[in-house]
Amino acid sequence: MINIYLKEFELTAGENRHEKEHLVGEMLLREGLKKEYGIVYGEDIPLPVVKGERGKPQLKEYPHIYHNISHTDGLAVCALGDEPVGIDTELIRPFSEKIIRKVMSAKEQELFEKLKGKERTAYFFKIWTLKESYVKAKGWGITIPLTDFSFYLEDGTVTCSVPGVHVVLRCLKEKYMLSLCTLQETKICWKRQESI
């Protein structure tokens, strides 16, 4: 089972955006560890996170508990469970189309070219977050060409060119795109959805 914790937040005057995003993501991980596993780290105690085999962050004392954190302007998410997981979220916003050739496979580019306006932007962020969540689930980060695999979005379902990949894709508040990836079918529990 994978538990997903979400929190929307605002910056106050003088706050560093990246620092705030990191703190909110870590707070969600702490909350998930406490609620799901009874593991409590004091607020003043740094989480013992180390790099795993391929560089993916893992808990030093609990390598069997998988987690992944993502954040974007105003939203932090944390996926936590007993199997490899990747999660990515992005604020839907204007983007440079120069990146398309580095992110999308030929098939994905073909469909992208047929879309206009908001559909085109939404499609880009669907593909981007799906690919990010997949490489994070595998523990690779963006160390492989994202054009080497594809996601197909048809009739409300999402499939991947790589067998055995399971994904959840959601648009939150018509503002954020969120993708979660696991390497086997599993139950997903949305645990915290403040203001979402």
Structural class comes to alpha+beta
Order of helices and strands: EHEEEEEHHHEEEEE
Count of helices? Answer: 4
How is the main sheet built?
4 strands, mixed
Roughly how much helix do the residues carry, as a percent range? 25-40%
Rg, Å, rounded: 17 Å
Strand order of the largest sheet: 4-5-1-11
End-to-end distance, in Å? Answer: 22 Å
Q: Report strand %.
A: 25-35%
Number of strands: 11
**Average pLDDT rating:** 92
Could you list the spans in which at least 5 consecutive residues all have pLDDT below 50?
A: none
Overview of the molecule:
β9 and β10 (176-182) form a beta hairpin. This protein has a four-stranded mixed sheet, covered by helices on one side. A three-stranded antiparallel sheet has the order 6-10-9, with helices on one face. A two-stranded antiparallel sheet has the order 2-3. It has helices spanning 17-37, 100-103, 106-114, 117-138, and strands at 2-8, 49-51, 57-59, 66-72, 75-81, 85-91, 151-154, 157-160, 166-172, 176-182, 188-194. The two termini are 22 Å apart. It is an alpha+beta fold. Helices cover 29% and strands 32% of the residues.
